[in-house]
Input
Amino acid sequence: MLHNFAGIQRAGAFVVTLLVILIFLPKDGLFKFEYQVNQPWKHDKLLAPFDFGIKKSPQELEAEKKAIQEGQPLVFFYDQDISNDILSKVERQYSAQLPDTATQCDSSFQSALEIYAGVLNMAIIERSNEAAKNLSPFDELLLYKANRLNPLTYQEAITLQQVLDTIDTVGFIIQDSNCRAIIIDAFKKQIRPNALYNDSLTNKLLMAAMDEVVSIEGKIDKGTTIIDRGDVVNEYRYKVLESLKLEYGERIISDTGFQWSIFGEMGIIAALIGLLILFIYMNQDRLFNDPRPMTLALSLLALSYAFSVLAISSETISIYAIPIGITPLLMRMFYDFRVSIFTFIISTLIVALFVANPLEYMVIQLGAISFATLFQASSTRRSRMLATALIVFIGYSIIYVLINVAQNGQIGNIDSGMFGWFAINSLLCMMVFPLIYIIEKVFGYISETTLLELSDSNQPLLKELAIKAPGTFQHSLQVANLCEKVAVAIGGNTVLLRTAAMYHDVGKMNEPQFFIENQLPDNNPHDDLEPEESATIIINHVLKGIDLCREHRIPFDIIQFIQTHHGTSTVRFFLKKAKEKAEQKGESVDEALYSYPGPRPKTKEHAILMMADSVEAASRSLKKFDKESMDKLVDGLIEYQKNEGQFDNAAITLKDINAAKRALKIALHGIYHQRISYD
Output
């Protein structure tokens, strides 16, 4: 089970990615024609395969609904109970103010009451309501009275002021001044609106009007020519093609249950993801053997797809606002340009299946982001964050403008709003840099940026090594240079190798005097020790180095180099010495006591460090530094390691080993070249 863990994790990442894509899969099927407004039709003559309606665009439907909403009259409900209550209160107030014995005002009051009842019956609109405050004089209203809706304009509706004026006018015909004052006061104190705004009725009418909006504005009969090759896709033809596309998707759903469409789409996507896996397998064997890179690549691909599909289905967010470029920029921080760009190509192809203009989308995305990734590849410094974002914006803008000029033959049709989306995209791409830290913690990766920081000789652990074991520190520097030269010759992560070489012998600082590079002439403490004790001290520098790196939180990828840089080889000098002593006593030697714990190198980089370390250390013991001696040293050491099987688990070929030998020989010749004597 554990042996197949990498394969299980890769398969799991593949399945989870497909599930995420399936969840966010657009509901309409793929349409086999590609077209753009104001561009010529590049396909053969297209005939209507069936009758279908020309559907209004979402923008047209939205505008129509908005116009209905803005033009919907407010409904005011005439309440007869309010009118009766007003009249009743007027009568009570009149009676309260006029003594029972005084009847001279009754006839005038009854006449005024009849006039006032008639005014109330015409309805007094409630104007203090929030909904009515924004009405203009000519806005239409609806008065619901006697189970009928009666239209009238706002200025035609009776106001309170008009009612007050009517009361004053009625008062002029009352001769008795005392009666006039009592009657007018009774009327004015009880006046109030009796036609109130009814939100429920207004909304019901609005919803009914909305429901009557028709999404079809025309019809195309089966066999009708929709467009011919070379015809320009104008606004009308674009609307017809969009209607055909929607109808085609709906018919697929009704005819096939839609599962076959999903099956086809998912098959295409699975094939593209499989192509990505195959590319990594054929070109980056080190990455394929480690399940984490595949998991990261597929995770970024799934997230890019999910956010892109949400933007496609949204009417407010442009697809170009989605920072799909984070995928290659982030991958580039951990792996080489080829893996980064190929992952991005596959991601872009999958998203392009569902965008309106796939060719334009692919050209803009691949052109702009590839250039930004190349720029980022030239330096892994975080200071390039703003410059990378700026290049993303410039790349998008230039390619977009050029495509529009090529399509339209002029610069006037450019949508300036696109530049705003490009700016949002480029700013979001700056999230790459804070995401590096998260990815390193979640996936256990180590980016080139972090590697560069770790390889700085001012790092606490390296500074301590330089003080306590200066000879080992110089040895590490030389090994780093040799590793870099071999990696250039046979391929490999040079930044990772240089950093690992700086830390591979940090365990020697605990007892530096026992290692030859730190010893003074004629002062070897091993002379006073038994071979087994000496071997234990030498071997323990690996274990102590691991402990020190864990204590200083050095990434596990670096610790693996410490574990593997001697593999399972033996401390040959002390083993030979122990065997000589044992032969004299007629005893045997347990070789396990003189063997490093391993494991053997697992990657090409591990093997390179093993070769460079052994060659650099052994070269210090040469008595002659001529070409023949150095070549013999390199050949002998590496052949011994190969024959011991130290490279069996690493992704390194015989061709790579021979190329590594050549690179090491050239490097040694450069280090120990003949110098001019000035004596």
In short: Residues 105 and 179 are 5 Å apart (CA to CA). Strands lie at 46-47, 52-55, 74-78, 140-145, 148-153, 195-197, 216-220, 225-227.
